[in-house]
Amino acid sequence: MVQRLLTRSAGAAIALGLMSVAALAQDAEVAEVSTELPADGQFVLNTLLFLIGGFLVMWMAAGFAMLEAGMVRSKNVSMQCLKNIGLYSTAGLMYWIIGYNLMYEGVDGGWFGSPGPIGIPDPATEGGDYAVASDWFFQMVFCATTASIVSGTIAERMKLGPFLVFVVILTGILYPITGAWQWGEGWLYEMGFSDFAGSTIVHSVGGWAALTGALIVGARKGKYSEDGKVNALPGSSMPLATLGTFILWLGWFGFNGASQLAIGTIEDAASVATVFMNTNLAAAGGVIAAIILSQVIYKKVDLTFALNGALAGLVSITAEPLAPSPALAVAIGAVGGAIVVFAVPLLDKLKIDDVVGAIPVHLLAGIWGTLVVPLSNGDANFVTQIIGIVAIGAFTVVASGIVWLIIKAIMGLRVSEEEESLGLDKVEVGVEAYPEFASGAGRV
Amino acid sequence: MVQRLLTRSAGAAIALGLMSVAALAQDAEVAEVSTELPADGQFVLNTLLFLIGGFLVMWMAAGFAMLEAGMVRSKNVSMQCLKNIGLYSTAGLMYWIIGYNLMYEGVDGGWFGSPGPIGIPDPATEGGDYAVASDWFFQMVFCATTASIVSGTIAERMKLGPFLVFVVILTGILYPITGAWQWGEGWLYEMGFSDFAGSTIVHSVGGWAALTGALIVGARKGKYSEDGKVNALPGSSMPLATLGTFILWLGWFGFNGASQLAIGTIEDAASVATVFMNTNLAAAGGVIAAIILSQVIYKKVDLTFALNGALAGLVSITAEPLAPSPALAVAIGAVGGAIVVFAVPLLDKLKIDDVVGAIPVHLLAGIWGTLVVPLSNGDANFVTQIIGIVAIGAFTVVASGIVWLIIKAIMGLRVSEEEESLGLDKVEVGVEAYPEFASGAGRV
Amino acid sequence: MVQRLLTRSAGAAIALGLMSVAALAQDAEVAEVSTELPADGQFVLNTLLFLIGGFLVMWMAAGFAMLEAGMVRSKNVSMQCLKNIGLYSTAGLMYWIIGYNLMYEGVDGGWFGSPGPIGIPDPATEGGDYAVASDWFFQMVFCATTASIVSGTIAERMKLGPFLVFVVILTGILYPITGAWQWGEGWLYEMGFSDFAGSTIVHSVGGWAALTGALIVGARKGKYSEDGKVNALPGSSMPLATLGTFILWLGWFGFNGASQLAIGTIEDAASVATVFMNTNLAAAGGVIAAIILSQVIYKKVDLTFALNGALAGLVSITAEPLAPSPALAVAIGAVGGAIVVFAVPLLDKLKIDDVVGAIPVHLLAGIWGTLVVPLSNGDANFVTQIIGIVAIGAFTVVASGIVWLIIKAIMGLRVSEEEESLGLDKVEVGVEAYPEFASGAGRV
Amino acid sequence: MKIVMAIIKPFKLEEVRDALTALGVHGLTVTEVKGYGRQKGHTEIYRGAEYAVSFLPKIKVEVAVADDQVQGAIDAISQSARTGQIGDGKIFVIPLEKAVRIRTGETDSDAL
Amino acid sequence: MKIVMAIIKPFKLEEVRDALTALGVHGLTVTEVKGYGRQKGHTEIYRGAEYAVSFLPKIKVEVAVADDQVQGAIDAISQSARTGQIGDGKIFVIPLEKAVRIRTGETDSDAL
Amino acid sequence: MKIVMAIIKPFKLEEVRDALTALGVHGLTVTEVKGYGRQKGHTEIYRGAEYAVSFLPKIKVEVAVADDQVQGAIDAISQSARTGQIGDGKIFVIPLEKAVRIRTGETDSDAL
Ligand SMILES: Nc1ncnc2c1ncn2[C@@H]1O[C@H](COP(=O)(O)OP(=O)(O)O)[C@@H](O)[C@H]1O
Ligand SMILES: Nc1ncnc2c1ncn2[C@@H]1O[C@H](COP(=O)(O)OP(=O)(O)O)[C@@H](O)[C@H]1O
Ligand SMILES: Nc1ncnc2c1ncn2[C@@H]1O[C@H](COP(=O)(O)OP(=O)(O)O)[C@@H](O)[C@H]1O
User: Fold this and answer.
1) Which chain B residue lies closest to E50 (C-alpha atoms)?
2) CA pair distance B425, B409, nearest whole angstrom
3) How many CA atoms lie within 13 A of A394 on its CB side?
4) Most buried among B167, B278, B425, C232, using CB within 10 Å?
């Protein structure tokens, strides 16, 4: 702590200055020290970083809502909006009641912390490097992101109630536990796993939970014909899907940038800037790769692949957006985009019905991004990365699988066939998304 | 001012340091002082807070536009968009020409300041704790918010011209006057009224003006049958309404967070962070309360109640987002959400036709939020809170009522019955919102 | 550099302080110096300004996408979304591979810098006033904006491939070259040309490229009858166009505000605040002017003119958002709004088919804004402003004209008549924007 | 049997349906259509260019009725759809040779 | 020749088309319509106010066929569109006096 | 009287309307429909899955005319709607027994 005061506070500058007053003007060493921000300034700026990053990631909740609203058929759009605002709210409560402390409070190299509501320290006496509430806010929106990933995959057939119950468990317990392993400085962190902003901790966890959900709830009626044919069920609004993607892209600067966790020094500020640059390069790489591949393979450029490509590029760079050179960042993102173009039809072959492509984007690109961290970050190694990916995947698959099955047994997960064909909006929401336009009845 | 320099500037630290050089390394007291940000840094950060908060609240103008565009029928969507961009622009001009100074310039415990255009001080000589222009910007977007509230309630039947004339008066005169009572440090402020970010000053004022407008312009044709039946007139686009709500939620972090008015010290930064946390908790509480109540009462979850619930939660916490514990913040917001579910049908029983639910959300939840400030803020008391609510309500009802009536007498407020059934877009805007889809003609 | 240390660092304050310890408490001069932010704090804040400004301008990419999606007919909406996400990604790659260095690296009063990929300095050793990566990010989004301008004008008839090839050249070579003349401190800069945030450098360049594109690709089928009649082809969604405009308006605070390039001192912070204020006033002036003129001339208020008016106001103030008084800012913006109302029909008379109005908004208002800089900025003069406008216009027209023609010769620019009437979505994208609603077939 | 096909103003649909229901007609089918007729459309201005909206939104009501109900249906529609303004619409009577209820296979008047 | 006009449930369209194609019918025209009939609509609640959605989405299929194909078309539609639930829809047979293929000018059965 | 019902390509609507107006036809009703016929639809690809869009957008024009105008209307439509390409559409002539103008109660040819 003395050390910290010496290196950060103007007081230190004064002390040093007094020791060598005469030398001051000439001695660059000393002058350099004195250019630093005083500690309170660092506290303020770190807090500001969390708040800005936090509101940008909060905005991603709107991005998921719009992307999913655009990718489902019009008869399920109100429900998709409802699920998204509902899950963001649920996550916001659960992560306060239990999640944050379960993830961060006294994990100490172990498996989880102490569940329980977080209190806000009195601002007047608060110490530390940033405001605790700003950290809570920033971490909470990450938790909500995990749940957003799930809602897209299981869209158009799952009931609202069971979905929100799953979100309660996911955001209150499952995500915080695996989060504790790494960001709570649990066992995985101690082993040297590296996941800067959460390719695995957030995106793959959401992706795994989405995958188990998709397997357990089954495909949408009509998606796969008995003769093995895959039927396209185009989404209701491409501009909304595009808007959602741009929102997510914007939010990602908060997601990755503020995961530097500090911006009070030149080094931290420059790192945040580098993260912004690499994040954008990877997303651009993902889009261009998806556009080119989709033109080459299908002779048309599928807009939804380009959109998914952006997101896959973003997920891919999330595990390590700081260390890669720009060229490597582009390459990592481009592979993410390629994953989308190849994995979407593959999942369809396996009859895994993922309405918005969340599994390729968040799970597969998340694994990819986590795997390649050691290419640029010398502190990471492939073995530990694989251990982390597998451990978190195994836990999430098993735990979320059990939760899905219990909910299924108690409440049932999906609407009836007839309700599904009528659309969830009529059945559960009571408010059609576009009452004046769409018949809500099969497309001619 | 000397006092301020002593407590804020590094110069003070030096002075103190010189008095006890030897003690420096050991004396925590002194070291603490020296960790503070120099005054210019505080100026910069306070200004930055206003600018960030300001652009977030500016973004709420888009949120209102989208929410309202989604909640009106397609034949009135272009008009609603036009009213929203028009009112934001009008507010932006009026608050410069007259409003800001009327609200802040020399109120001194009185009833209003000196109207007149605000000039921008020369940056080179500007003093104070923040840039005046940043404060103007931040206050201006609050003023515009007040007008946004009105446009939603009186949608689908009021003409453009009279509406914009009302906005001229509201944003140039009415809002600044009641604003001066409190934020301009007028009589109400001196009495000890407490309204952190404007549950009453902004939201209730907008709500009262909307209520008088709704009463004077009357209900939409077809909304209430002669036999007393309430007819649902569902909005054109639920995803746009959802988008609008998310935009407003995002903007609210600027609305409440930057209302701390400073972020240059640890205390202020921590307070802003706490405000972010409580704001989100209250909104989440509002959503979940509205979802649960709407399921219990109607057996379906009305998406528009969930959306209104979020906003009501936000309005409720706006009067005091700093002092409440997280649990209290959730509770305050949840009651806000409940207000929506009960008040919307109640207003319909009273044949007050509020297209988007602005009266429950902004007026009623605004009153609720203002009333409960003393629960957590020891400096406030219930009597003064009630005096403030009643005084501001009475003034706004009377003044806006008079303005509505004068405009009605001179220009007329609403379109003809036939024009209303054709839709305002055809009649006044000339550009249909969705020329290729909606017939603009009654829904089958 | 010593000077900078003296005026910026706390160390300097100490040195000075020691020289006149006794005078400290009384001497305002000295106290003032000591209130400054240490250099690292300025680095951090300048970097933060670039990052915030950068993400706001990045968000403008979404604004263009939504504005254009709303202004084209539904059969071309997916394509418009695809072009927008594609161009932003292309710009993001090209400006890294070649553009940034071509624009900034060693221009030294000349015509262009040294093309080549930019590397990111190691944050640990990075010096300067801001992080290089943050500057790259901020400049890159400006470059992307230029390309966004083009996509709107040539919508609904140009193929995807040729368009993206043009964007490669525009963002990699053309924009960086004219950018180098001024912002890279090339010959025009040395001559004293003044363009604060790019009315000419960004908006007119985009506008010129759009104009040559429109001339070379020709008008949409059906836009102009042989008898000289102009046929309105109304856009698909006015709320999306409105959303896009609000997004652009929000982004413009980053565009103009962060173009102050620094926020570490009182002066810079106050300047950024003034820029925010003037930017908003000009946009408001543009909207109100367009509303009033459109009511007076056409007896109806065209929403799309109001939207374009906001943007024209913003473009107009972009060349000098700091120096004008508020009243002048309103006036400059209002003329921008008027330009839209008069120039849109004029272009139609000339059979220049500009789908979204980008030429009036970005080119003409850009010229206007650049021309009037000397009214408020004493360092600028009309002759140099005109030289800059003409030189950049001439270069961009010739160079982009050649590029368009070469691409036309090699790949062809537009789809066949039949494809155009079917819509680009069916032909090139394969995904209709609203598969459940719009027939995609002529409007009744 | 006949098909009585009426083109009416959209906001009259509820009244027309109620009038037909009162007659004992249990089913009908409606379509959103656009009508061109003596009723002038309106001119809109989009970005300075005038354009005529000559097709106006109308609702087409089709109802299959037994021969003895035809006049009743015509009268019911005429009265309920009339505003007296130009553009009130038309009623057309078209011969109907056969009707089948898909669910049961019932035919003709049993099927209506 | 006749026009066979069927009102069916939307999700049955593909089956109906396939059944007709199997009969040798090469063309048909479909329209999105709303139907009112014995099949009850549903009540929705919007912001606390109940409202009845009494018009349900249906698809109208119109197919012009030669006289000898009429019964075949009726049967094909009946079978393929039937769910046995209320609301399956109706088939109406309307006389058709003349048919013209615009492209070639062929008339009547050559035009179908 | 007859109802002349034509299924045409959407972008031909204006020409057809003008041709009919030139004949002295004062009213007509149009509907957006989807057509299935010899004209192949197209295959789209959505997220790697092919799907056939076999129903193409068409416009249905319905115009009630007196018997002596039928052939004129057919000719006018045929000429104005023809592109010579497959998918130009069909014209169907259906008997019309009665017409009523709702506003005035005029019937038959007075009502057209
Ligand atoms: N000859 C016709 N054939 C088909 N539809 C017609 C005919 N004449 C009129 N209509 C329909 O009736 C509607 C009303 O006709 P219009 O001439 O405007 O007024 P009115 O019903 O008062 O004579 C038109 O919009 C059109 O849909
Ligand atoms: N008399 C009628 N004239 C025109 N259309 C009808 C008539 N009766 C029914 N229909 C159409 O048939 C559909 C199905 O009819 P309905 O009475 O609901 O069930 P069902 O076909 O089982 O008798 C209705 O929605 C309506 O579109
Ligand atoms: N037998 C039919 N009954 C009803 N509509 C038909 C029939 N045959 C064709 N059509 C309509 O006419 C349109 C054009 O027919 P199509 O076979 O594609 O080309 P063509 O008109 O050149 O023969 C179809 O899309 C369909 O709407």
Assistant:
1) B232
2) 24
3) 6
4) B425
F53 within 8 A of F20, measured Cβ to Cβ: no
**Rg of chain A's alpha carbons, rounded to an integer?**
23
Question: Among residues C367, C282, C368, C283, which one has the least CA distance to residue C324?
Answer: C282
Lowest mean pLDDT among A424-433, B27-36, B172-181: B27-36
CB D57 within 8 A of CB D9: no
Res D112: pLDDT: 83
Any ligand 3 atom below 6 A from CB of F88: yes
Instruction: Give the pLDDT confidence of A29-44 residue by residue, as tens digits.
Output: 444 446 899 999 999 9
Cβ–Cβ under 8 Å, residues B190 and B113? no
Tokens for A220, please give them: 């949408």
Quick check: helix, strand or coil at residue E92?
Answer: strand
User: For B232, which of E34, E49, E55 is closest by C-beta distance?
Assistant: E49
Identify the residue whose tokens are 């008027």. C338
DSSP letters for chain F: -EEEEEEE-GGGHHHHHHHHHHTT---EEEEEEEEESSS--EEEEETTEEEEE--EEEEEEEEEE-GGGHHHHHHHHHHHH--SSTT--EEEEEE--EEEETTT--BGGGG-
Q: Cβ E48–B304 below 8 Å, yes or no?
A: no
Residue pair A274/C120 in contact (Cβ under 8 Å)? The answer is yes
Amino acid present at B212: T
Cα–ligand 1 centroid distance for F33 (angstroms):
20
Closest CA to D2 of D61, D78, D62, D65: D65
Instruction: Report the residue from C2, C43, C89 with minimal CB separation from A266.
Output: C43
Each residue's pLDDT tens digit, C135-145 = 999 999 999 99
Q: Which residues lie below 8 Å from residue D75, measured CB to CB, with a gap of 6+? A: none
Q: How far is CA A134 from CA A59, A140, B270, F97, in A?
A: 16, 10, 8, 77
A and E in touch (3+ CB pairs within 8 angstroms): yes
For residue D53, what is the DSSP state?
A: E
- Stated as kind and residue range, the H or E segment containing F21 is helix F13-22
> Nearest to residue C274, comparing CAs of B144, B142, B134?
B134
In contact, A208 and A23? CB cutoff 8 Å: no
Q: What is the mean pLDDT of residues C208-236?
A: 95
What is the interface pTM, i.e. ipTM, of the complex? 0.92
Confidence tier at C437 by pLDDT (50, 70, 90): low
CA F94/CA A416 separation, integer angstroms: 43
Query: Nearest to residue A40, comparing CAs of B263, B274, C15?
Result: B263
pLDDT for position B30: 40
The number of CA neighbours under 13 Å toward the Cβ of A431 is 32
Residue in E32, E42, E45 nearest the CB of A444: E32
Task: Give chain A's mean pLDDT.
Answer: 91
Q: Among residues C359, C392, C274, C369, which one has the least CA distance to residue C318?
A: C369
Cα A340 from chain centroid? Answer: 17
> Do residue A426 and residue E44 have CB atoms under 8 angstroms apart?
yes
Which tokens hold the place of F46? 């959505």
Cα atoms in the 13 Å half-sphere on the side-chain side of C211: 22
List the single residue in E with minimal CA-CA distance to B293: E48
What's the CA gap between A185 and A193, in Å, rounded? 10
Say what the pTM is: 0.93
Ligand 3 centre to CA of F86 (Å) is: 9
C-alpha distances in Å from residue E55, one per residue of C188, D8, D31, E40, E88: 68, 17, 11, 9, 14
* CA atoms of C290 and C285, how far apart (whole Å): 8
Considering only CA atoms, which residue is closest to atom 7 of ligand 2? D27
Exposure letters B387-409 (e unless 16+ CB within 10 A, then b):
ebbebbbebbeebbbebbeebee
Contacts of D38 in chain F (CB under 8 A): 26-27
The pLDDT, as a whole number, for residue B15 is: 38
What 3-state DSSP class applies to A16? helix
The interface residues of chain C toward chain B in range 140-169, judged by CB-CB distance below 8 A, are none
CB of D88 closer than 6 angstroms to any ligand 1 atom: yes
